[in-house]
Design a protein that fits this description.
Number of helices: 20
CATH superfamily of the largest domain: ANL, N-terminal domain
Strand content: 15-25%
Radius of gyration: 24 Å
Helix content: 25-40%
CATH architecture of the largest domain: 3-Layer(aba) Sandwich
Strand order of the largest sheet: 12-11-8-6-7-14-15-23
CATH topology of the largest domain: Rossmann fold
Bound molecules: adenosine-5'-triphosphate, magnesium ion
Distance between the termini: 34 Å
Number of domains: 2
């Protein structure tokens, strides 16, 4: 950050407002802006009362003695309370009136469908918990999970939670060294995997990759292998066991451990968008309460919903909004194993129609891919069952938002743009859909109990309309408690940058209506002649051009201006790069946001470097634009060939 100015200049102008559709609001949990505002005020004026009430929706074995305790990095929630999250996700419903309700509704990439009721899930989770116990795994032990999107993946998480083992899910697309790094960082004693998984018609050799990773891991004693495809794999005697064989031997009853509210639940590494991934540790009580409450209000869950969050369980979104949040609410959760464009580009829309999905939650990167593939794929399906849409992961460009609103939501479904992080555990800023009007590109207003603010580096509030650093003023229940094994780094990274607050690392501005607009990572801010631009503004201007599918903007050093703007652009299907188009796009940005934002360099590319979770890795582009090389951490890069292609240039 420059010393003179920590403010971001903001030139993004987006005036469209979409009030909640009256039919939606009439049936919603929160039905009006007045109701949202009253609840919000209560939640921040009386946080202990508010969160205690929320926690009463869960079953506790022993009640807490204090709702919250401690400040900042040292905050604790529901102190003294004992509960089990697996019990709250499964037993509560299986033993109540949802025994025969479908909990997991799964479709494999080749097309098979499986349905597990809460009753069946209850049995499976208990059996697998007993399998883990039979291997000597006990509360506090770390267990790595490296699987594809199968129901067994959710079962593995819930079984760990049931016995108090700390799961560490490693995204099933990572290479062997990413597994060994993560396993060694926390000393995992076992790893749960599967033979192979399906992705875009081919098989990913998960078990073979685990074998390679384990050559560098001394702590792992057991490997449990779920048989998904039946493809041949090597089993190492004494170490490797088949899931189905162990399940058959295991008893179907396993009492849930009474976990302390502050006992660890899981650890999970961030996506690595801004650097080396950090292993965040989440605990039990506060995480349970906030994931449950946000799922209820932001996805407005009702008993007849078929809820589909397309995130892989390998990311925090999958933890909080495929597994723990919706299942605590007793929702029917759709899970899909494979790629969105397999066998064709309309797979998601087909799934929505086939399974009558009502709530659909995906990422801006996916939405930009859908627009690039073309509207004809969407038009083949009715999408009538949908009532609510969501996005997460990156700021959504207003033009992508409008496409989502029109093409998928048919102008009938509210869109919840949910801002949060691995570190926050649960959604922090998002519209409560029956109450808060939406604006394309804005995550809108804070969730109950959350106090975000836009400030300078010194922690002073920035006036509305101006950009600054996004911080959170008070601790919240689902926040990560530490970076595993490195409390000092946790305190430095999040709790010391801006005095007295949690620092998100993101830039934002708040408008006169109290809406938050995320502007990109603070580290990515571009400073042109003293004007500070969020990457989001330049990128959104480019994406608004009819020929542009995706764009990434970065700064590179410039003698006169401090920084020059370099942009990387992918085009919509059917358009070709040309010098003429390059000039047209530079001019377009100048017209949309001002001459100052006119890109100095514009590179056409087939693809942008992204994390495995689909986020643009601007730090790699910045390196490339500055030095012509990439040396930074690329462990979570989605496609290693992208960098080489970019280096070759666009001509
Ligand atoms: P790393 O921390 O390793 O760099 P990461 O920040 O991408 O990786 P995540 O925790 O998966 O890892 O992502 C959180 C970040 O994603 C946020 O800090 C923010 O930059 C971005 N983000 C998520 N949702 C939104 C949203 N709705 N609007 C804007 N930005 C979002
Ligand atoms: Mg981050």
């Amino acid at each position: 950050m420059s010393e003179e100015s920590t403010d971001l200049d903001s030139s993004l102008r987006e005036n469209r407002v979409f009030p909640p559709p009256p039919e939606f609001a009439a049936k919603a949990h929160v039905k009006s802006l007045e109701q949202y505002e009253a609840m919000y005020r209560h939640s921040v004026d009386h946080p202990e009362e508010f969160w205690a009430e929320a926690a009463h929706e869960l079953e506790w074995f022993t009640p807490w003695t204090r709702v919250m305790d401690g400040e900042g990095a040292h905050a604790k929630w529901f102190v003294g309370g004992k509960l089990n999250l697996s019990h709250n996700c499964v037993d509560r419903h299986a033993l109540g009136d949802r025994k025969d309700k479908v909990a997991l509704l799964w479709e494999g990439e080749p097309g098979e469908v499986r349905k597990l009721t809460f009753g069946e899930l209850h049995e499976q989770v208990q059996r697998f918990a007993n399998v883990l116990k039979s291997l000597g795994i006990r509360r506090g032990d770390r267990v790595a999970i490296y699987m594809g999107m199968a129901p067994e993946l959710a079962i593995a998480l819930l079984a760990c939670a049931r016995i108090g083992a700390v799961h560490s899910v490693i995204f099933g697309g990572f290479a062997a060294h990413a597994i060994s790094d993560r396993v060694n960082d926390s000393g995992c004693v076992a790893i749960i995997t599967q033979d192979t998984s399906y992705r875009r018609g081919s098989e990913v050799q998960l078990k073979a990759i685990v074998d390679e990773a384990l050559e560098k891991c001394s702590t792992v004693k057991h490997v449990v292998v779920f048989r998904r495809s039946g493809s041949a794999v090597k089993m190492q005697p004494g170490r490797d066991l088949w899931w189905h064989e162990e399940m058959e031997k295991a008893s179907a009853e396993c009492a849930a451990e009474w976990m302390d509210s502050e006992d660890p639940l899981y650890l999970l590494y961030t996506s690595g968008t801004t650097g080396k991934p950090k292993g965040l540790l989440h605990t039990t009580g506060g995480y349970a309460v906030q994931t449950c409450l946000t799922s209820k209000y932001i996805f407005d869950l009702r008993d007849d919903d078929v809820y589909w969050c397309t995130a892989d369980i390998g990311w925090v979104t999958g933890h909080s909004y495929v597994v723990y949040g919706p299942l605590q609410n007793g929702a029917t959760v759709m899970m899909y194993e494979g790629a969105p464009n397999w066998p064709e580009c309309d797979r998601f829309w087909k799934i929505i129609d086939d399974h009558k999905v009502t709530v659909f939650y995906t990422a801006p990167t996916a939405i930009r891919a859908f627009t690039k593939w073309g509207n004809e794929w969407v038009k083949k399906h009715s999408l009538d069952s949908l009532r609510l849409l969501g996005t997460v992961g990156e700021p959504i460009n207003p033009e992508s938002w409008m496409w989502y609103h029109r093409m998928i939501g048919k102008e009938r479904c509210p869109i919840v743009d949910t801002y949060w992080q691995t570190e926050t555990g649960a959604i922090m800023i998002a519209p409560v859909p029956g109450a808060v009007a939406t604006k394309p590109g804005s995550a809108t207003r804070p969730f109950f109990g959350i106090i975000p603010e836009v400030v300078t580096k010194e922690g002073k509030p920035v006036p509305d309309g101006h950009g600054g650093l996004l911080v959170v003023r008070k601790p919240w229940p689902s926040m990560a408690r530490t970076i595993y094994g490195d409390q000092a780094r946790y305190e430095v990274a999040y709790w010391s940058e801006v005095p007295g607050s949690y620092f998100t690392g993101d830039g934002a501005r708040r408008d006169a209506d109290g809406y938050f607009w995320l502007m990109g990572r603070v580290d990515d801010v571009i400073n042109v002649s003293g004007h500070r631009l969020g990457t989001m503004e330049v990128e959104s201007a480019l994406v608004a051009h009819p020929k542009v599918a995706e764009a990434a903007a970065v700064g590179r050093p410039h003698e006169m201006k401090g920084q020059a703007i370099a942009v990387f652009v992918t085009l919509e299907g059917g358009h070709e790069p040309s010098e003429e188009l390059r000039q047209e796009l530079r001019q377009w940005v100048a017209k949309e946001i001002g001459a100052l934002a006119r890109p100095d360099d514009l590179t056409f590319t087939q693809a942008l470097p992204k994390t495995r979770s689909g986020k643009i890795m601007r730090r790699l582009l910045r390196e490339l634009a500055t030095t012509g090389e990439v040396k930074g951490d690329t462990t979570t890069l989605e496609d290693f060939t992208v960098i080489a292609k970019l280096r070759e240039g666009d001509e």
